[in-house]
Specification:
The protein is α/β, with parallel strands linked by helices. The chain folds into three domains: 219 residues, P-loop containing nucleotide triphosphate hydrolases (Rossmann fold, 3-Layer(aba) Sandwich), CATH 3.40.50; 38 residues, no CATH class; 33 residues, no CATH class. The protein is 40% helix and 16% strand. The protein has 15 helices and ten strands. The protein has a six-stranded mixed beta sheet with strand order 6-7-8-3-9-10, sandwiched between helices. Strands 2-1-4-5 form a four-stranded antiparallel beta sheet. α11 packs antiparallel against α14. It is globular and about 60 Å long.
Length: 387
């Protein structure tokens, strides 16, 4: 499974300009998360902070127990091996064919033989549907193919965390739909932790397990998709529905009174919370995404704390099998009486107790300081060797 990413109290500025402040969230391991926000809210800056390319003024980013904001260069080098990144334009070398582009990280960071490199590259190219295009140059293929080649390159070191910086940028709606399906299918196959920065509403509503929203230098919300999609938080609801009415203006700083008046007028014609758009499922023949079950369990653990209308929308969005699991009601109807009590949900979703595993070799022990644990974890590995 992928690695958990814990962000605590993160703040970033460029000179006197604050980009965002006190951002706190946890990317659950093995799940797909999306980060939204109007243009200029620092979403790409956030990605760069996760991999240690930018140093925040305050806060921590914990990757497998290592704080990338304060760790040594040697530890940071090792932590970055856990990441794969798909850049907006694919970031391919124009003078190299696709095979050599995808093989580049393997040749740079491992000691694999050329036969092993070829086997890995062809495997990843098959995963993204590029077999047969090995000899093509980036300038000879479409934007969608360049995105898939960039994704194949991000996968060759078998990362546990994959960052997508606006993967739909420059793609038409059809290619975006294909790319979204590819992302979901990949998550089912490798169970890595995915974080997608996007402006595409379709992607935000149908792909992720978790959604976060940056606005006016703050993280407005972050949580499971069911909670965000039924939220009546004005900025979240406005963005996810692509409406003009709400706090977001052309310059981002819409007058508060104007926004309130627009929302009041909008409410007059509506009732209830937004409906939950179905999540994109894996392609037939792919393994089931275990992330879905983990996320739903978290939602049901907090089910009783949500507004009643949100509870009803969440319950209606469940499949008969899921409904039977959480409510004992596979018929498809939502009861009009009291909802399931929080303690009952906790009993249903509680994981089966398992014996504690043996400590991982080199893992930080409870009494070891972070620096010592990090040294044991990273320097115990063979640098530059096969991963």
């Amino acid at each position: 499974m992928g690695v958990e990413v814990v962000v605590e109290g993160l703040s970033k500025s460029f000179g006197p300009q604050t980009i965002w402040r006190d951002v706190t969230l946890t990317l659950p391991p093995g799940e797909i998360s999306v980060l939204l926000g109007p243009s200029g809210t620092g979403k790409s800056v956030f990605l760069k902070s996760l991999v240690g390319l930018l140093k925040p003024e305050e806060g921590r980013v914990l990757i497998d127990g290592v704080d990338v904001c304060t760790c040594s260069e040697g530890d940071l080098y090792e932590v970055r091996k856990l990441f794969g990144v798909l850049f907006q334009d694919g970031a391919l070398f124009g003078s190299m064919n696709l095979f050599d582009n995808i093989a580049f990280p393997l040749r740079e960071h491992t000691r694999k033989s050329e036969s092993d490199v070829r086997a890995v590259v062809l495997e990843k190219m098959e995963m993204v549907g590029l077999l047969g295009a090995e000899d093509k140059l980036p300038g000879e293929i479409s934007g969608g193919m360049r995105k898939r080649a960039g994704l194949a390159r991000a996968l060759v070191l078998d990362p546990e965390i994959i960052l997508f910086d606006e993967p739909d940028s420059g793609l038409d709606p059809v290619r975006t739909a294909y790319l979204n399906q590819l992302i979901v299918d990949l998550n089912a196959q490798i169970d890595a932790t995915f974080l997608i920065v996007t402006h595409d509403i379709g992607t935000a509503r149908t792909v992720p397990d978790n959604i976060g929203m940056l606005f006016r230098r703050n993280l407005v919300m972050f949580g499971p998709r069911e909670v965000l999609l039924t939220s009546t938080e004005p900025v979240v609801e406005q963005f996810l529905n692509g409406r003009r009415q709400g706090p977001i203006g052309m310059s981002e700083e819409k007058d508060a009174g104007q926004a309130a008046a627009e929302l009041a007028a909008l409410r007059d014609g509506e009732a209830g919370v937004p409906h939950i758009v179905p999540q994109l499922d894996v392609t037939e023949g792919m393994p089931e995404r275990s992330a879905v079950r983990r996320r739903q369990d978290r939602v049901m653990q907090r089910f009783g704390t949500l507004p009643e209308q949100a509870q009803q929308e969440i319950a209606k969005a469940l499949s008969p099998r899921e409904r039977a699991r959480y409510f004992g009601d596979p018929t498809g109807s939502w009861p009009t009486g009291p909802v399931l009590a929080p303690q009952q949900v906790a009993q249903v979703t509680a994981p089966t107790p398992r014996p504690s595993p043996e400590p991982r070799a080199g893992a930080r022990t409870p009494d070891a300081p972070p620096e010592e644990g990090a040294r044991r974890r990273w320097f115990g590995r063979r640098r530059g060797g096969d991963r």
